[in-house]
Design goal:
The structure is a single chain. With 144 residues, the protein is of the alpha/beta class. The chain has a single domain, classed as 3-Layer(aba) Sandwich (Rossmann fold). It contains four helices and six strands. The protein is globular, with a radius of gyration of 14 Å.
Length: 144
C-alpha cells in the first residue's frame, strides 16, 4: 500500500508522532511519504491508498479549541477526494475536545472517507499508535 503521512506541527510533537506513524507503516512493508502539509500539494494525493493526517490542537482550554488553522486552510483547499481513506490524529496537552470531529467533518465535506481517528497526549505521543495504524490500514484495504 502507498501511504501519505501529512502533518501540521508547532512544537515538534505532531512531527514526531507523524514520523512514528511513518516508521510503523514502513515496518509493515508499505511505501510511505511523510511531509508537513505546507509542502503537500494536491499531486501528492494521486495514487495514494491511504492518508494519515495529523495536527496539533490549537486554542486555550475551552476557547477556540480545534485543529490548527493552517491544517483547516489546507483541508479546505483540497479537491477531488471521493472516497479517499484518511486516518486523522492530533497531539494535545490537556484535552483535544472536538478537534478530531472537526477535522473529520472538514475532510468528509471534501469527499474523503475518515477510517480512523486518534488523539495522542504530548507526554506519550506514541501510546496506542500501533493499534491506530492497524485499524486505519484494515479499514483502508480494498476488501473493506
Amino acid at each position: 500500500m502507498k501511504a501519505l503521512v501529512a502533518y501540521e506541527s508547532r512544537s515538534g510533537t505532531t512531527k514526531r508522532t507523524a514520523e512514528a506513524v511513518s516508521w510503523a507503516l514502513s515496518a509493515k512493508g508499505h511505501d510511505v511519504i511523510t511531509r508537513p502539509v505546507a509542502e503537500v500539494g494536491q499531486d501528492y494525493l494521486v495514487g495514494v491508498d491511504v492518508v494519515f493526517l495529523g495536527t496539533w490542537v490549537e486554542g486555550f482550554l475551552v476557547v477556540g479549541v480545534g485543529p490548527a488553522k493552517a491544517m483547516r486552510r489546507w483541508v479546505s483547499g483540497l479537491k477531488g477526494l471521493p472516497g479517499t481513506p484518511i486516518a486523522v490524529f492530533c497531539t494535545y496537552a490537556l484535552n483535544p475536545r472536538g478537534t478530531l470531529a472537526t477535522l473529520s467533518s472538514l475532510l468528509e465535506i471534501a469527499g474523503a472517507r475518515v477510517v480512523a481517528a486518534q488523539g495522542f497526549n504530548r507526554r506519550q505521543p506514541t501510546k496506542d499508535l500501533d493499534s491506530f495504524v492497524q485499524k486505519a490500514l484494515a479499514a483502508a484495504s480494498p476488501s473493506s
